[in-house]
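FORM 7B - TANDEM STRUCTURE REPORT

SECTION 1: FIRST PROTEIN
SEQUENCE AND TOKENS:
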Amino acid sequence: MKEVRVNEIYAVKFTADNVYYRGLVKKQDKTGKYYIHYVDFGNHEFVTIDRIGYLDKALKDIKPSVIKGNKLLI
């Protein structure tokens, strides 16, 4: 079983289109689902662990694209 950590960025399959995007794990709920913030688009959703994949460090290190004014929205 893979380990998913809160406050880490992963490749997460968005439920609306089944495409992987960079997602920050914000928390895990009581049912085991993870609350994800998609750092390049600003969407949020709960997903199951099977929709979360590992992301190369080089991709994790890219700054998020969702910015309002001069403040990151994460």
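SECTION 2: SECOND PROTEIN
SEQUENCE AND TOKENS:
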Amino acid sequence: MLLVVARVGRPHGVQGEVTVEVRTDSPDERFFSGAILQTDPEKFGPLTVESARNHNGTLLLKFKEISDRNQVEHLKNV
């Protein structure tokens, strides 16, 4: 069974971080370094979490497959 745990928001900074709209009760269990996330649509994933951090109440994720802001623009609403 697959669960929706987040929706990718806008880019943050120039190094490929994105804001994430969390849709799970346990984000610490879902978004940790090395976690592999399936995507919808599938053509964008899977994505591997490189880092996760809280920035003023907003979760920011960096994915191993994404290296800059230009690449992350395509993930919005995934």
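SECTION 3: OBSERVATIONS ON SECOND PROTEIN
The mean pLDDT is 88.
The two ends are 18 Å apart (CA to CA).

SECTION 4: SIGNATURE
Preparer initials: ____
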